[in-house]
Design a protein that fits this description.
seven-stranded antiparallel beta sheet, five-stranded antiparallel beta sheet, Rossmann fold, PurE domain-containing protein, phosphoribosylaminoimidazolesuccinocarboxamide synthase activity, alpha+beta, nucleotide-binding, D-amino Acid Aminotransferase, Chain A, domain 1, 13 helices
Length: about 425
């Protein structure tokens, strides 16, 4: 469906301070999230209209969810529908705000006297708050959440689910923190919510993440803050003050688009000694693609044509694109050592070992003369991952995919253990 296409909108399912949720009659399992031109603070003790806020918030949250989804984080977001609305999977919301903090400020200082503003949390500080406007969203412990025994969309929230939300919150924060760092902005803290997808019973990141959801300090300087705290801090709400708040929100919505852009180019060049190694090399290329890294396959033999091998090397050194070479050579590996001795670029040996001679052949990749620094990784997928880790040092989009992959691996193990325990009972 094209953006902005006509939808069959059903009844209103829910309404919050800044958005409305509608069912979609022609798309079961999906909802329309419509933003409002309203800004609030202190559980709506302060409440004002801000013309254009719905479009600004929708643009911000759509970009943020796009970044997270492209990284590999499971979210309820489907796509942006219009300037002020997006389509999402229908979820039953878990009534907990997960707050993740890198820098001590705001309410944390009031609840923890003696901690100075600016104290840096490493690891991140995690807190949770029960969504209860009447009682000002009280802070909850993990034990309170477990004892609540929430059951949503058929899923009971137990230890496994709490651990997944906790771990996911940290990963989501770190991904957004890494992305905002490319714009010289410090992500100070952030609040997010999770829901249970009514179709899949999966816990996914839901609700919205916009300029109401975090504190952002350009250059790490609180006096330059661009988030909703500026509105909270207003002594008097005037048209001039609201215009300043709106400009800050617009600044964030424009910058957030830049988070989707790569900060550096990169490339993996796989050199194989023979086309008989093609299947092995295709696994490397497939894994590189999953990290968003271009991968080129070439055939050359350092034993039979060393001049051609070095010519190919020079071809990729000459265009200025950061490159990792992966040498795929069975039997006696000459490719890796020759490449490593003649380039300052990283070289990874990934020999396609065979059952008969593999234990002998591998030594030509492990025992290097002095002055050579090529690594050896036997798994084609792992060699691509190592290349991604190198590029992730300068490209936040690659790093974000790696971080999300770590989370998803952890979650799959957690769910597998839960399933096994259930079968054992």
């Amino acid at each position: 469906m094209a953006p902005g296409a006509k939808l069959k909108v059903g009844q209103k399912l829910n309404e919050g301070k800044t958005k409305q949720i509608f069912e979609l009659l022609d798309q079961p399992g999906l909802v329309l999230v419509q933003s409002k031109d309203q800004i609030t603070a202190g559980n709506a003790v302060r409440k004002d209209q801000m013309e254009g806020k719905a479009a600004i918030a929708n643009k911000t949250t759509s970009c943020v969810f796009q970044l997270l989804q492209e990284s590999g984080i499971k979210t309820a977001f489907v796509k942006q529908h219009s300037d002020t609305a997006f389509i999402a999977s229908h979820c039953e919301m878990i009534p907990i705000e997960w707050v993740c903090r890198r820098v001590a400020t705001g309410s944390f200082l009031k609840r923890n006297p003696g901690v100075k503003e600016g104290y840096r949390f490493s690891p991140l500080k995690m807190e949770m708050f029960f969504k209860d406007d009447a009682n000002n969203d009280p802070q909850w412990s993990e034990e309170q959440l477990l004892e609540a025994k929430f059951c949503l969309a058929g899923l009971t929230i137990g230890q496994c689910e709490v651990d997944i939300m906790n771990r996911s919150t940290v990963a989501i924060f770190e991904i957004l923190e890494k992305a905002w760092a490319t714009q010289n902005c410090t992500l100070v803290d952030m609040k997010i919510e999770f829901g249970v997808n009514v179709k899949t019973q999966e816990i996914v990141l839901a609700d919205v993440i916009d300029n109401d959801s975090w504190r952002l300090w350009p250059a790490g300087d609180r006096s330059q803050q661009k988030d909703k705290q500026v509105y909270r801090d207003l002594k008097e709400v005037t048209p001039e003050a609201m215009q300043m708040v709106k400009k800050n929100f617009e600044w964030v919505s424009e910058r957030v688009k830049l988070l989707l852009e790569p900060q550096a180019s990169s490339r993996v060049v796989v050199l194989m000694g023979s086309t008989s190694d093609m299947a092995h090399c295709e696994k490397i290329r497939k894994a590189c693609t999953s990290y968003g890294i271009p991968c080129v396959l070439r055939v050359t033999s350092a034993h039979k044509g060393p001049d051609e091998t070095l010519r190919i090397k020079a071809e990729y050194e000459g265009d200025g694109i950061p490159t990792v070479f992966v040498a795929v050579a069975g039997r006696s590996n000459g490719l890796g050592p020759v490449m490593s001795g003649n380039t300052a670029y990283p070289v990874i040996n990934c020999p396609p070992l065979t059952p008969d001679w593999g234990s002998q052949d591998v030594w030509s990749s492990l025992r290097m003369p002095s002055g050579l620094g090529c690594s050896t990784i036997l798994s084609p997928e792992a060699s691509a991952q190592f290349a991604a880790q190198i590029f992730g040092l300068s490209d936040h989009l690659v790093w974000c995919k790696l971080r999300a992959s770590m989370l998803n691996t952890w979650v799959s193990l957690k769910l597998a253990d839960k399933k096994l325990q259930a079968c054992s009972l």
